[in-house]
Specification:
With about 375 residues, the protein is an alpha/beta fold. It contains 12 helices and 14 strands. The protein starts with 7 loop residues before the first helix and ends in a 5-residue tail after the last helix.
Length: about 375
C-alpha cells in the first residue's frame, strides 16, 4: 500500500487543533482519527469537521483534536486507545478497515466513549456509521456505464483504497452489474486510491499495453477528471470521448457541462467538454455530520448504528454551476464551482448535506463555518 502525504492545509488544521487552552478544560474532549490522508477528499472532510467544531452551537461544548494514523490499522488502534486514556468523550474516525478496529472500539464504548465513523464503516455494533449506501453508489455508477455502452464493450475499472469498506462495497456493487452483461469485459482493474495522481499513473500503465481505441468506457471511483484529461491529451475530440462514470471532483463536473457553458477561469482540460459521464458522490461533509451527531450523543441523545446520507446522482442533464457556494445556493441544486474559485480540479464538489447548514464552500476550503 502506498505512503500518503500530509497536505499543508491539513497539517495546519492538525497543528491548530492540538493547542490546549484553559477554556478547553470545560469542554467535552473529542478526537478526529484519520487513517489515510492522500487526497483532496480527506482534506475537505477535515476542514468541515473543524468548521463544525467552530460553529456557534458547538464551539463552547467540544474541544477537538486531530490525529492521523496513515493506512496502518495497528497505528490507528494504538491512537484510539490513547484517545480513550486521554479522556475522550467521542471519537470521529475514518477507519482503514471495517473489522480491524472492532476490539478497540468495543473497549472504548465500554468506557462510555461514543464512536462515529464517516464514509467508511466499522462492523462493531456499538459504533455509529455515517455514510452513503456505498454498494448502491457502485451499482448505479456501473449501471449508467452499462446502459451508455448498450450492454457491451471493454471497460477499465479504477477502484479506491483496498481494504476499506467503501472500496469493497462499491466494487461489489459494480461487478454485480457488469456480471449481468456477457458482452461487457473488464479488461483492466487497478486501485486508483481515490487520487487524480494515482489514477494518471495507473491509467498510463493500462495505456502502455492497450490503445484508447480498444477501450469503450471507464469506471473510475474518483478519477474521471484525469480520464477525460488524458483523452484530451491524446487528441480525442470532445464528441468522441469515451464515457467515464465515478465520483465527482470539481474538474470532472466542469468537464460534464455543455461546450457553451459560461465558466470563469477554465483552461486546458479543466473546461466544459460535454463529457459523457455519471457523477455520484460521498460528500466530505459527512465527517462534519458525524461530529454533529457525536455531540448529540454526548448530550444523551440516541443515534442509530447506521446513518445513511443521500446519494447525489449528477449527470450531464442536471450538473449546475454554483455562483457563491452558500448552503442555501447548494440546497437549491447547484453542484459544481467555478474554476476561478476552485483552482484545483481534483477538489471534490459535493459538500452539501441538508442536515449541516453550518457547512458551505468556505467551510470546505478554510474550516470556517457559515455561522
Amino acid at each position: 500500500m502506498r505512503t500518503f502525504f500530509l497536505s499543508s492545509a491539513l497539517g495546519a488544521l492538525i497543528a491548530a487543533s492540538t493547542v490546549v487552552t484553559a477554556a478547553a478544560a470545560d469542554k467535552a474532549k473529542v478526537f478526529l482519527s484519520m487513517s489515510y490522508i492522500g487526497n483532496d477528499w480527506q482534506a475537505e472532510a477535515a476542514n468541515t469537521v473543524r468548521a463544525m467544531a467552530l460553529s456557534k452551537d458547538l464551539k463552547d461544548k467540544i474541544d477537538l483534536e486531530v490525529q492521523v494514523a496513515g493506512p496502518n490499522a495497528q497505528k490507528q488502534i494504538q491512537q484510539i486507545n490513547a484517545m480513550v486514556q486521554a479522556g475522550a468523550k467521542a471519537i470521529v474516525v475514518y477507519p482503514i478497515s471495517p473489522t480491524a478496529l472492532n476490539l478497540v472500539v468495543r473497549n472504548a464504548c465500554s468506557k462510555g466513549v461514543h464512536i462515529f465513523t464517516y464514509d467508511a464503516e466499522i462492523t462493531e455494533l456499538c459504533a455509529h456509521n455515517v455514510h452513503i449506501d456505498q454498494k448502491e453508489a457502485g451499482t448505479k455508477a456501473a449501471q449508467w456505464l452499462a446502459d451508455r455502452l448498450g450492454g457491451k464493450g471493454n471497460i477499465v475499472y479504477l477502484s479506491g483504497v483496498p481494504g476499506t469498506s467503501t472500496d469493497t462495497l462499491r466494487t461489489e456493487g459494480s461487478m454485480e452489474v457488469f456480471a449481468k452483461y456477457p458482452e461487457i469485459k473488464v479488461v483492466a482493474q487497478t486501485p486508483g486510491m481515490w487520487s487524480q495522481a494515482v489514477t494518471r499513473t495507473e491509467m498510463s500503465k493500462v495505456l502502455a499495453t492497450r490503445d484508447w481505441k480498444d477501450i469503450d468506457g471507464v469506471l473510475g471511483q474518483a478519477g474521471c477528471f484525469t480520464i477525460f484529461s488524458m483523452q484530451d491529451e491524446a487528441g480525442i475530440p470532445d464528441d468522441q470521448k469515451k464515457p467515464c462514470s465515478g465520483e465527482g471532483s470539481n474538474g470532472h463536473r466542469i468537464q460534464m457541462l455543455p461546450l457553451d457553458a459560461a465558466v470563469d477561469g477554465a483552461n486546458g482540460s479543466y473546461r466544459p467538454m460535454a463529457a459523457p459521464s455519471f457523477s455520484y458522490a460521498s460528500p466530505p461533509v459527512s465527517a462534519a455530520y458525524a461530529l454533529k451527531l457525536a455531540a448529540k450523543a454526548i448530550e444523551g441523545q440516541e443515534i442509530p448504528h447506521d446513518v445513511i446520507v443521500p446519494l447525489p446522482e449528477i449527470t450531464n442533464e442536471n450538473v449546475k454551476i454554483c455562483l457563491e457556494g452558500s448552503f442555501e445556493e447548494m440546497k437549491s441544486g447547484c453542484n459544481v464551482f467555478q474554476p476561478s474559485i476552485i483552482t484545483n480540479p481534483g477538489w471534490f464538489a459535493e459538500i452539501f448535506n441538508a442536515e449541516t447548514p453550518e457547512i458551505g464552500l468556505n467551510a470546505a476550503l478554510t474550516g470556517q463555518p457559515e455561522f
